[in-house]
Amino acid sequence: MIEELKNILDEGSDEERQILELALQSIRQKRERKSAFLSGFLGLKGQFLDERTYSFEIPITPFMHNSTGAVHGGILATLIDSTMGSLINRSLPEDKYAVTTELKVNYLRPAKGTRLRSEATFLHRGQTLVVMDTSIYDERNKRVAHGTGTFIVLKK
């Protein structure tokens, strides 16, 4: 494996080296924040915009591209799910957590450029089930995807 890594560093393309950098970022983030490796690959760093809205802004990297050069639909679905999951789990008491029970995604236009922004809000917040709404925007502030999700709240 070491030889293969050296070969990529010495002779690989810029994209291949960027993927290795993302892998290292993912490992660091997992160690530091106890987050999922995927969070590190996506560069997820979020913030509350207000008490009911959570947002991620992420760079578009070669890891995310499909064969046409747009962001892969699975990445957009993951970003939608992650934004909603972050909002609900950061707003629950420490003895509870929430997981996705349903996810619906509408792809509106190809996601291209250098950055994406996602924003999640609550549609309904019950004791056990929470319904949420998320939109993803490109750097021109054009909506590229929209999703809704249902989460179940559980005790740890």
UniProtKB/TrEMBL annotation:
The keyword Hydrolase applies. Residues 69-144 form the Thioesterase domain. One of its GO terms (molecular function) is acyl-CoA hydrolase activity. InterPro entries: HotDog_dom_sf, PAAI_dom, Thioestr_dom. It comes from the Bacteria. NCBIfam families: unchar_dom_1. This is PaaI family thioesterase.
